[in-house]
Specification:
The chain is an all-beta fold. It has a single domain, classed as Immunoglobulin-like (Sandwich), CATH 2.60.40. It is 0% helix and 44% strand. The protein has no helices and six strands. Strand 2 and strand 3 form a beta hairpin. It is elongated, with a radius of gyration of 16 Å. It starts with a strand and ends in a 5-residue tail after the last strand.
């Protein structure tokens, strides 16, 4: 199971499985928050593109991988052969 904290992101996140290399790839992009008001002075979130790659074990069931996003937490479940 993989978990990633991605607050404020939804459709901007992509989960891919590269079956040839047995690699799980999580990627996305956070756009810079820009507002034209004077109520705040600093943004604590980074912006830009990101990619993370994880090599999966030989006993991973590649065709049964499931991903879900809830409250800014991406959960990717990779079942294994018993």
């Amino acid at each position: 199971m993989f978990k990633a904290d991605l607050p404020g992101l939804k459709e901007e996140v992509t989960v891919e499985i590269q079956e040839d290399d047995r690699v799980l790839q999580i990627s996305g992009e956070r756009n810079f928050e820009e507002e034209n008001n004077d109520t705040w002075h600093r943004v604590e979130r980074s912006s830009g593109r990101f990619t993370r790659r994880f090599r999966l074990l030989e006993n991973a069931k590649m065709d049964e991988v499931k991903a879900s996003m809830e409250n800014g937490i991406l959960t990717v479940t990779v079942p294994k052969v018993e």
